[in-house]
Amino acid sequence: MAFKKLINSKTILSFFAAFMLFGTNLLMAQTPAAAAGTGEDANQVDWTGVAYYVLIFFLICLGVAVIGKILKIYDLTLKIQGKKGLKWNNVMGVICLVFLLAGLYGAYWSFTVQGSMTLPEAASIHGVKIDEMFTVTTILTMIVFFITQILLFGFLFKYRHSDKRRAHFLPHNNTIEKVWTIVPAIVLTILVVFGFFTWQKIMDDTDAKGEVASINIDITGHQFAWELRYPGKDGKLGPKSFKLTTASNKLGVDFTKKSSFDDLSADTMYLPVNRSIKLNIQAQDVIHSVYMPHFRVQLNAVPGLPTYFKFTPTITTADMRHKLDDPKFEYLVYCNKICGGGHYNMQKVVRVVSEAEYLEWLSHQKPYLTDGLKKELHFADAEPQKAVSQNRLALNN
Amino acid sequence: MDHKMIAKQFLITGITMAVIAMILSILFRIQLAYPDKTFPLLTTLLGHFAPNGRISTEFYLSLVTIHGTIMVFFVLTAGLSGTFANLLIPLQIGARDMASPFMNMLSYWFFFMASVVMLSSFFVQSGPASGGWTIYPPLSALPKAMPGSGMGMTLWLISMVMFVASSLMGGINYVSTVLNMRTKGMDLWKMPLTIWALFLTAILGILAFPVLVAGVVLLIFDRSFGTSFYLSDIVLNGVQQPYEGGSPILFQHLFWFLGHPEVYIVIMPAMGISSEVMSVNSRKPIFGYHAMVYSLIGITVLSFIVWGHHMFVTGMNPFLGGVFMITTLIIAVPSAVKTFNWLATLWRGNIRFTPAMLFAIGMVSFFISGGLTGIFLGNAALDINLHDTYFVVAHFHLVMGSAAIFGMLAGVYHWFPKMFGKLMDEKLGYLHFWLTFIGAYLVFFPMHFMGLDGVPRRYYAFTEFASMQKWLTINTFITWAAIMAALAQVAFIYNFIVSIFAGKKTTQNPWQSNTLEWTAPVEHLHGNWPGEIPTVYRWPYDYSKPGAEEDYIPQTVPFSQTMSSNLPHDFEDNPAGMDELKKFNDKLKANDSESPKES
Question: What domain of life is recorded for the organism (chain B) (predicted)?
Fold first, then answer.
């Protein structure tokens, strides 16, 4: 009774109405909002007021309550007429069937429409193997998905409650149990075997046999950017130590070693097509993750734990632009491990080009050993990178 | 304190925390749906965390972190296990209370304190922890790494230590109660599947949670006392830090040694509850009871040796990755057995669609959908491209978010009469179910495709990436689906609160169920049963037994009272009963031959 009194209280309702009409407008008073990012929507009014949405919510609730009341009255009318009331078990059974049909169509729609928005074909050799594995797994799992969901909701509809029927007493059946233990085990064994060998192949930690060389590239993550370092004419990247990090020597390259002198820094990651690439991955501050989805490449960048990932790009940026019919397409490297406020924007362009274009690009890259750094290290007589042809030696590492 | 009251305390605290976590998720979904727009209300509500009508980038990560933490630990671990283990273990095994009622009460208050400490982090200047619910160091170990690595992270760690203390006190109680305090006749193979699930979950918690505490203590040392357990070679903001020799990967091993069993700590009670509810409402014995128990045991054991699949791309030894892939995919076998057994339970049933039953069915549906996508992520080669993308978000929100929440809600609807002596409104329950069920699928199904497009999780704004612009419309759709699912919870909260005070009074056994709790009086008594604790004679799933008068036979009914329905295997461990059955059958035959035959 007390609850009903509360609901019927005119005072409460009046306060509520006043709140709806005036209070929230005060709350939502629009101020010129400095839009972050683009700075375009500074004065945009996005919500007319929370009261509007609260009102809509209450109207929906009212609608639901009215429908509920109508159903109740209908139910009572049937009972007064001596008929049985609404059979909710039947109603729910039918809704289950409708959900099944709508759900199957929805899943099909999602697969065709949203499925077509996913990544294009893999742009690396190992990526093709991953995609094959993905296709096999998708086929197997989708068969199970559709069969089990159809059985689940089909049984709900077919075996909905009836007063005239009694359920079938079936506590166990060892043969059936064996079948649905062994069959999934076999399917999973197939996936495990294929998966295991694919994984081992991808993760093979030595350079591929018979391959003349691979290109070593250093990629180092810090809040919130990637730093790239390419080897110079000697084809070797100089060693690093975090203890040597300074404002000029951001990566802590060790210049007591000769191999460090000709290293190059770059803003964009250029990769020659069909050449084996070895990404040496490191982080300076917190964990980052090198993620290049188009190449099916991902590995964490962990402070104190250098890691690396080997792959061979197979489709140039130009070819991919053509395939996707998107002249602005770029391969990207993302940060895929939460690393702070700017985590979401740690992107860097990766460009896959022909070997000639790569050489051309490489010849224009600046040496890591800048004048400032030389000064800091007291390298008065150190020679800067000069000739284009010298950089080409990087390919012979 | 009575175990039933502690169960209610856990439930109400769990629901409160769930509502908070849900609001946090709506806040960050709004950011994702409208990354270029401003909402002055956000500044009003969140102050300096949302300057100029937009959530700050750091606070966005805090929202994600605390949402995950609350849902995984405070709702799906404590809210689910805490509620139903406390309510059901003594009632379903026939005990007066927990083995240690005082420690049981302490476990709730530690949980409550942990909740308060976790929420208090919203009121510190630098904001709550923002390193993700997995709090990987160095982000969590370096207080200067970001605002959310400061005081908020300290409070997170303190809260988790309290939480683990609570879980351990609860878990030890559950295990010792199940092992020592079962009533006469209640052997292990007569225990309902809820008890098996809660019992094995408690064992998982006892073995896994201490490892997290060990990891957290070392993390506190790194944060505050200059040790280098997890840190090495750090240059922060251009300044070299004095850490050497540690490994952030070590923390990940310790974290996931808990973290993966935690997934099963969350889902196993939901499995047990759903099994029970489905059996009762399809009026059938659960199919393959022994297989269900063995698969739970299998999952319990295997869950300890699969943690490495969270670390395929950390750079750990690739051979180890291969091993973890094998163990991870093996765990799909017992999961498949459970799923098929649930389907067989429904087959030729006489299914009653109570809200509890619908939520149990929803749990199975989500478990299938989410479980299957787990096969992709468990495969190390595929994980290279799917790790930490929206595919993962979709997978775990279906399999351990939605499925576990649905299991919990099935339990709430089913045992509400036992907790409060009232019935919840069924029609509101139907509305609640369908809106939440459809909403959850609309939210998480499209996320799979975002993940397949390589969209990373925990990104503040996709507008910075040309290739991700195409997902903006779907992101907006997902947000509105999430808002719909969130609003559906209003129907539940309203139903829950109003039913406690003004619900229809329940009878002693409203669902015609076999288990022991429904033999206790509606009114709560200390000690559960007046007089003697009932004796148990049979397993809990004698539904629709041929020859029985009713379609259910409670566990307390002796076989001598149901001779017409007894089966030979009912007497496997009772030869005297077999003789009795023979005599009964002979008598029946004699009666048949004596009675005049109809022409």
Answer: Bacteria
Mean pLDDT of B540-552: 92
d(CA B264, CA B262): 5
In this prediction, residue A268 carries a pLDDT of 95
Q: How far apart are CA A318 and CA A313, in angstroms?
A: 13
Identify the pLDDT of residue A393.
37
Q: Which amino acid is at B182?
A: R
Q: Is the dihedral of CA A17, A20, A25, A26 positive or negative?
A: positive
Sign of CA dihedral B591, B594, B598, B599: positive
Q: Do B289 and A64 touch (CB under 8 A)?
A: no
ipTM summary value: 0.92
Q: What DSSP state is assigned to residue A38? A: T
CATH of domain B3-505: 1.20.210.10
Domain ranges of chain B: 3-505, 516-592
Handedness of CA B553, B559, B564, B569 (dihedral sign): positive
Q: ∠ CA(B550), CA(B555), CA(B560), 5° rounding?
A: 75
CB B41 to CB A250 under 8 A? no
Dist CA B22 CA A233 (whole Å): 57
Kindly report, residue by residue over B71-95, the tens digit of the pLDDT: 999 999 999 999 999 999 999 999 9
Give the best residue of A278, A286, A329, A349 to mutate against chain B (max B CB count within 10 A): A286
Helix H or strand E encompassing A332: strand A331-335
Per CB-CB distance under 8 Å, the chain B contacts of A184 are 332-333, 336-337
Closest residue of chain B to A142, computed from CA coordinates: B372
pLDDT of residue B598: 47
Cis peptide before B40 (omega within 30 of 0): no
Q: Helix, strand, coil: what percent of chain B each, to 5?
A: 70, 0, 30
Spell out which residues of chain B touch residue A107, defining contact as CB-CB under 8 Å.
445
What backbone torsions phi and psi does residue B162 show, to the nearest 5 degrees?
Answer: -65, -40
